[in-house]
Design goal:
The complex is a heterodimer of chains A (468) and B (1009).
Chain A (H helix, E strand, L loop, with lengths): L1 H5 L5 H7 L6 H7 L15 E7 L5 H4 L4 H5 L7 H4 L23 E4 L4 E4 L3 H5 L4 E8 L5 H10 L9 H9 L9 E5 L25 E2 L18 H22 L2 H24 L6 H7 L9 H13 L4 E6 L8 H25 L6 E6 L3 E2 L16 E2 L3 E7 L6 E3 L1 E2 L6 E3 L2 E2 H11 L9 E3 L2 E3 L15
Helix pairs in contact in A: 3-9, 10-11, 13-14
Chain B lengths: L2 H19 L14 H17 L3 H6 L8 H4 L18 H7 L18 H12 L30 H12 L10 H13 L5 H9 L5 H11 L1 H14 L17 H12 L4 H10 L8 H6 L16 H21 L18 H11 L19 E3 L3 H22 L11 E5 L8 E2 L9 E4 L3 E4 L4 E4 L5 E4 L11 E8 L6 E8 L9 E7 L2 E9 L3 E7 L9 E7 L8 E5 L2 E2 L2 E7 L12 E3 L12 E8 L5 H8 L14 H21 L3 E3 L10 E4 L7 E5 L18 H9 L6 H14 L20 H13 L4 H10 L1 H4 L7 E2 L2 H12 L19 H6 L27 H4 L19 H9 L1 H17 L4 H13 L5 H20 L1 H7 L13 H15 L2 H4 E2 L1
Antiparallel strand pairs in B: 1-19, 2-18, 3-4, 4-7, 5-6, 6-18, 7-17, 8-13, 8-18, 9-10, 9-17, 10-11, 11-12, 12-16, 13-14, 14-15, 20-21, 22-23
Helix pairs in contact in B: 2-6, 8-10, 10-23, 11-12, 13-20, 15-16, 17-19, 21-22, 21-23, 25-29, 28-29, 29-30, 29-33, 30-33, 31-32, 31-33, 32-33
Classes of the chains: A alpha/beta (468), B alpha+beta (1009).
Amino acid sequence: MSAPFDLLEPTRRHFLSGAGLGLAGLALGRLFGRDETLPHFAPRAKRVVYLFQSGAPSQQDLFDYKPLLNEKNGEELPDEVRRGQRLTGMSANQSTLPLAGAQFEFRRHGACGMWVSDLLPHTAKIVDELCFVRSMYTEAINHDPAITFFQTGSEIAGRPSMGSWISYGLGSLNENLPAFTVLVTKNKGGQPLYSRLWGSGFLPTHHQGVQLRAGRDPVLYLTDPEGVSPATRRRMLASLRRLHEGQLEREGDPEIRTRIANYEMAYRMQTSVPEVTDFASEPDETFELYGEDAREPGTYAANCVLARRLLERDVRFVQLYHKGWDQHDNLPAGIRVQCAETDRASAALVVDLKRRGLLEDTLVVWGGEFGRTSYSQGKLTADNYGRDHHPRCFTIWLAGGGVKPGHIHGETDPYGYNVVRNPVHVHDLQATILHLLGFDHERLVYKHQGRRYRLTDVHGHVVDDILA
Amino acid sequence: MNALHVKALLAFSAIVSLYGSSLVAAPPSEEPKVDFGREIRPLLSDRCFPCHGPDRAARLREGGIRLDDFDSATEDLGGYAPIVPGNPEDSEVVYRITSDDPSVRMPPPDSNLSLSVEEIARIERWIAQGAKYDEHWAFVPPRRRLHPFVVDAGWVRDDLDRFTLARFEAAGESPAPEADRETWIRRVSYDLTGLPPSLEEVDSFLADESVGAHETVVDRLLASPRYGERMAADWLDLARYADSYGYQNDVERRVWPWRDWVIRSFNQNMPYDEFIVWQLAGDLLRAPSRAQRLATTFNRLHRQTNEGGSVDEEFRTEYVADRVNTFGTAFLGLTMECARCHDHKFDPVAHENYYGLAAFFDNIDESGLYSHFTSAVPTPALLLTEPEDDARIAELEESIASAENALAETAEPERFLDGHVGGFSFEAIEEGALANASDAEKPGRVADDPRVAPGRFGNGLELSGENNATFPGVGEFRRWDPFTLSLWIRTPDRKDRAVVLHRSRAWTDAGSCGYQLLLEHGRPSFSLIHFWPGDAIRVRAREPIPEERWVHVAVTYDGSSRADGVELYLDGVVLETETVRDHLTRDIVSGGGLVLTLGQRFRDRGFAGGRVDELHVFDRRLNPDEIALLHAGWTPATRFEPADSPWSAAHEELRSLRAELGKLVDATPAIMTMVETDEPRPTYRLERGSYALRAEQVEPHTPPAVHPFPDDLPRNRLGLARWLTDPEHPLTARVAANRLWQLVFGRGLVATPEDFGSQGSPPADQALLDYLALELVASGWDVKAMVKRLALSSTYRQSTEGTSQRLPAEWIRDGALLASGLLVERIGGPSVKPYQPPGLWKEKSGQVYQADAGDGLYRRSLYTFWKRTSPPPSMMIFDAGKREVCVARRRTTNTPLQALVLWNDPQYVEASRALAERVLREADASEDARLTYAFRLLATRRPSEEELAVLRELLDDQRAEFAEHPEDARALLTVGEHVRDPELDEIELAAYAVVASTLMSYDPVVTRR
């Protein structure tokens, strides 16, 4: 029988399955044979909210002010700036690569003096809370590999997502909500998303992100079917409990005990999840802050409010996605829409977390998967241009959770094409996020196929300069 | 669990750990002998090999010390040696691993690795005992050994039982008692078919007192087509099977015919060696059958992209790598992917060996991108005709051959530039239009301001590379239409690539579907393309055309779909050409919005700075004299048709036959397979695995340390498959036998079926594994025979808690559907779309998931449509494989979300009420009989009195509740598409549905014990 051979790895399976939503990191540490407890050191952040701007926002039109592009508008991108770097097949064959200046006004804001374009009036008001990294760079030049790289540390599918790593490393602080939740703006076109972005890769499935969705079932299958009243559900659960206790006695399988606990947690989730997704208790003031569209479930603004409610309840990792930033053409019109949908709520979330005392130990991250080109993809006209994918530089911002407020890190060349100071690679950002959560990114490992895997692969350096 | 079991298990666990250190065999006075393979290699591998193992570059960085073989480890390095056998004190290794000095200490602190006190002591003891090395067990072919001696021979039903029994006896224990018959038949039915037994099957087994009762059951299960479905489900995980391509837009692809081949092969009990030879290299077998070629789809099931702007070679490199990784995991049980970027750190697979394997998988005419604008099947592709089509195709091919002969023997009448369907002289652009001398109704159009400039005769058009001229309604040719294109061009420079004239939607984004005249390195090339490169004709001039000078270029095509039907002319003279591709089998008109276009193409390089004049299009193949006339400046003055002639009749006959064949083929589905190119593609070692960093060229080869590659085998995939299935191969049969053990016992003898290398788990019982591997080979790789032996063994018949496992995703759903009577059993066919919460596809990619109506809701789960970027959540929550990469085992979790699926997924709610109907219709009328019936249908056993009491109470309460709220009863009975039996009482039915729904999530129902 396999029984004797099972015992070569005693009780691992049972232990594993005990790791429901509520199992603490300490236990997981022991479970996977790590000879250390997690986190590795005192964390600066207990929670993370990642505002992923999918499609890649144009840094030249939002944060990375390049007046030279306006001066040289229409001139060819100089070879000494491009340095033979590869382009995507979407613009590589253009007969010309005309530089395109931003068509938006830039101003300096706050004590830190950060340049922000007029597209982001709300973000501009809180720059002194934010830590800007203008020198992000990545390797991929296409969306799928790039976003997969950002979220899993590898361009190739199969690795756990950042939230899964954090769920695995830290466990949950809330027995009744998933440790890793995912919110996607509804009804947005643009670059597709993939469930692998919040998947658990080779980590056990319960570390995968749980999507909270607008509509009848905020969590898939949460709501009882028509005709099953709360009383019926309670009765079914009570019957199951009695059945399972008898079964446990008969079989002695600890898995049954876990099942009992999980069923009760599922039942509690049926209450706790609607409680968190129902905004009835939110005062009008919330919607004044986040904007009226926060009343409409599934909008970016509503998801920001929901994120705050989840963070308040100590959900570890809240991952938002907002699609539609892929402005290959008609950039001026497209980016206006994107900013109108996201600017106010993004800023509101930071403000809201701060006044609730949560910003201190909550890390907020805002950014896309790569940057956009300084030259126009397609025709450059007096009032229109597009920008292709650009992995060599882009801007993101962070806030709270142990990063310097009002700080500007890194610099790009006057063409906004290459990083000239303090480059930050995707793995560096990942290492830094893990660091803020109390992990040494080189020691948060999971052995799979004989190899110790990390979110940061074999790379990554903590960006000390941005730590508060 | 009774006390006896506990005792047996505990004793067994002790024995297993003792076995490792050979304590049992050691004389009591001596120090225990350390077993290198079990106790030392895993340690050295895990803590030392990352820098001191097979990876040459890592060793070089770390001072050249090598600990993975005896000779290197004991080498004198100038007064010291890493290991001095028999002398731990003098061994550098011991000094290093025991030092307190962090600059000396090994493993170094920054590696985040360490050795425990016990592990250090073990290494010292091993060195003291002589530091004996053995080759890694998995690379030494299994050898026949004497069966272990057992006392209780009566327990043994199959020789494999001797191995397990010997262990029990060595520990002074007995095996667990036999499982009761209900437990066994449930177990074996699930394990062999993925479905529980029916009550008739249970009852007949319970009543069968014959000696062969168990065998009768197993034979029935193995003969059932469900067996093939169950076996296929596991294979789909390994093969990373999915119904969509996987990257970004994740478009649907049609590969289910391969899945059906797998099911058939298992059901027909194809020998395992043949099964893998076909999948790896069926196309290279002599006169391969269609099934043999279809089997090779296995190698194409990796993810593929069509994301705009992707670099073709970057993704093609990924595909080849995925084939190698899958080959490694599925057949060798080795983690090849480590060696993609550098030497493997743990196993003897050098960096160049990885590319040696890649060289086997590199030689198909494929693209790194599938087509966004067309639904072309990425090449190479196999036509999946029905038998009647085959006959018709053969007939047509024969008729075409005779029609070609007939035409060749008929004299063509005199021609004079007739068939003129488009003539553009570019003298002027008037309101965006270009006059068409042949048909005033069909003028050309310009976009983005091409310039009228001096031409060859009068004016011509100058292009920027971004602008164009289009000719709607002109040149709408199918691949069976003969045609001629003629124009004057003047190129300002030698173009690496320039699109001069084409009728296609796009370049790589459409697989180039259409026809196109390009300049490639200055050389005119003409192509007719269904999907580039594998389904296309391309003919290219051997010499570049002159620059800064007007030249006349013409193309004629005869409608044959053959490269020799294309001629290129320069200045009125036929050009010497090379045939780049000569394999056009499908349409050239897909992609939408096709229009004959001059000078530019979507995301391609246009004819920048080029000038064009006198474009003429003919719907027939002009003869050389006519081309010479065009070159001489003649233009067709008026359109005229020559009189009917025997030639024109023969010509029309041929054209219509070709059209009929073309249309038949175009309407026939195709599937991606492997087809070896005539010339192998040179394969290079890639630094850090990057497509852009080519190092030296690598010839196809296998890792020499794994198994020698016989000289007489061809260095192609077929040779590779033969190498793999050589009975002497140390891995193939072990990996297969281990997987069969895992299939039946829930866990492999090697617990890491994906890794038999030095980082994998050592086999729990190598003698048993080797025995099974040898038996498998000796039986002619007879899978059913091996499964039967495992299932009928005494070892399998025990009742122990250790075998219990939550059912896999597919079985839970299929079991519920079977019990409820809703399951629709049909083998194969297109994948189906059962219930899924709304909006999941839409929010990710804008696509809409439309659930099937009727049967598609109730098919077995292996037929559920698998979209990689949004897989079915009810299966993912139960740990189904993700199907992005090859996976050899699933991990089982136990989570609250699983309860929610079982309670609320309409699939299970509907199954509950259907089950309730069945119970009310089929069971005896008593309440207990009904509850027992429901319980047995789901759990295979009878409920205990206590269980029955719980269910009775629930039923009563629900009856009362629904009596009070009949609208709830009615609502519950409308969940799902199944129409309820109107004869049955609503309240009663709903109350039973609640009981059934409760049982659906009850442990004995979702667990196999």
